[in-house]
Amino acid sequence: MIAQVEQLLKQLIGLEAESVGRSVIERATRQRMQALGVASDADYWLQVNRSSTEQQALVEAVVVPETWFFRYPESFVALVDLALKRKAALCGSRPLRVLSLPCSSGEEPYSIVMALLDAGFAPAAFQVEALDVSAKVVELARQGHYGRNSFRGQDLSFRERYFDATASGYQVQVRVRDRVKLRCGNLMDSHVLGGEAPFDFVFCRNLLIYFDRPTQHAVLDALQHLLHAEGTFFVGPAEASLLTQRGMQALGAPLTFAFQRAVAAPESKSPAPRVAPAFVRPAPPLTLPRVRPLKPAAPVVPLDDAASALAKIVALADAGRSAEALRECERYLLEFGPSADTYYWMGLLNDMAGQGDAAQGYYRKALYLEPEHVESLVHLAALLAARGDHEGAKRLQQRASRASLAGVKRHER
Length: 413
Known about the structure:
Layout: H1 2-13, H2 17-20, H3 22-36, H4 41-50, H5 52-62, H6 73-90, E1 96-100, H7 107-118, E2 126-132, H8 135-143, E3 145-146, H9 157-162, E4 163-165, E5 170-172, H10 174-177, E6 180-184, E7 199-203, H11 213-226, E8 227-234, H12 240-245, E9 248-250, E10 258-261, H13 306-318, H14 322-336, H15 340-352, H16 356-369, H17 374-386, H18 390-412
Parallel strand pairs: 1-2, 1-7, 2-6, 7-8
Antiparallel strand pairs: 3-5, 4-5, 8-10, 9-10
């Protein structure tokens, strides 16, 4: 029956079973059977096919959110920079429109609101729409009450500005909650966002990695249709190459994972400016610093030694040329020997290609050579979480936090 459940989940939400791990789907199915008091696989299969309510309950048992406030902080810095420019271009004709999906328990859309308020935007100057397939997590977002796990990193000053402490955690303030319009809906349903005006910014991070290729492109077709011609699309680190393959242009600032529609360059005798790479080595999760100007990516160094060989790998990965980047990784290992950074990039490139088992192996090789390699810890944790190993992911996240903090202390000395 589990194979049938996998097919049902693919039809309902486009889920590729291998992306979360079949054990996660089997465990969720058994949980639902126990909750209903159903012992027979055949009886449960009949029930889940007949009941849309049970289908939703099964989806919610499978989809376990893993998120926190200001995840990928550079993307929020980029959002503010772009939003200020977009606001000036609109000349007050309408509020900015931002879409966050899947919004999970609300950390991302509320982070968007806090970033814009910190930048001086009036509450009426923008509106955030937030969508998730799980009614349970949408209700948690509406309640706006969070425990310590939602606050990660060292700079938590935003918590003092926008949350009220309670006996069991922190309650997001009404002025933040009121700027987010939450709804439960399935992105695979064409009616969910049908008729919406275009969005200036679309956040769709770490969703596409759970879909097969046809579903990824169907979702991207729908989201690109919702994106304003001058809008910006934010994705997760492992999804950047999908946007590049569809002809979208990277923003050109490190760690933003932001893309815009490519604009044809005007005819000119002088060569077109080179687009700076946007996909460089991901950093561990940190909370948002005060808004600062974006810095251009560093230029690629000529290939002449180990450091420049690694720089070439980064540049190729940034350009979406994954096969070439992997070949350069292999050449690096032959010429310079084992390297934690190189194994990390081999892991990330395989991760981006949906080769989870290979990616996991390379991340572990990197950690064998350098146990506190922060980027490998962070990405291996994300991979384990996506596969349902939340205890393993939590241990790696704790290691990454300790390693990151130790690095900061060494730098301060």
